[in-house]
Amino acid sequence: MLGVVNLSSDSWYRESVCLSSEQAIQRGIMLKAQGADFVDIGAESTLPNAERVEDVRQQSKILPVLEALNQEGVLTSIETYYPQVARECLRVGANIINLTGSQDNQEIYQQVAEFDAGVIICYVQGKNVREVDDFNFGNDPTDLMYDYFAREIELATSLGVRKIFVDAGLGFYYKNLQDSATRIRFQMKTFLNTFRLRKLGFPVCHALPHAFECFGEEVRSAEPFFAVLAALGKTDLFRTHEVPKIKAVLDTLSLY
Known about the structure:
The chain is of the alpha/beta class. The chain has one domain (2-253): CATH 3.20.20.20. It contains 10 helices and 8 strands. An 8-stranded parallel beta barrel has the order 1-2-3-4-5-6-7-8, surrounded by 6 helices. Helix 2 (55-71) runs parallel beside helix 3 (83-92).
């Protein structure tokens, strides 16, 4: 499991938002205690109207938290699409770069290889998660993802990267996926088709969605629901704001 620490006040999942370094450090320690294998730290929300956070500000927010969590033995993932942020975080000791862009992928792969770290390659139709338009479904979106990941894996491994996850980017805000029914159907189908992406030879990570339109006041039950579908599709790494709930779901499914 990949527990979430949000350093942006724009993030709407309030349970994961930390407005100070101290709060973020304590949450990271707590997530590990609850069962998270890694803690994913991000300084910019993916919401379409969220404030853009440039690379220097991202570093100022992330680095103090990262340094403290390293000292506590917490394994970390850094969500960014900026090469400068990736390099500084890797230098300080980040274990994984959660790459949410495609424009500077080669430079970031080189950095990941240099530090013998890991990378989560997110599927994104655009320069980065904040610069996307309509989602192109093609004849089969899973085929599009497969082809994209195959190219990226070839590039990354040619540069020396060995620790790779692929991520379908189901939490990204494409304009034509604002309709809840369309988006949720797409997310569910992708979860159940995860096994097809595993044929690439690398583990699959999924960010569990919220489907607030369906769950309403019970929105904190959404991630456990989607975790079941993702697990049935053979997902390897679950990015979640609800670590204890997802751990209980996965532990129960493992009994079958």
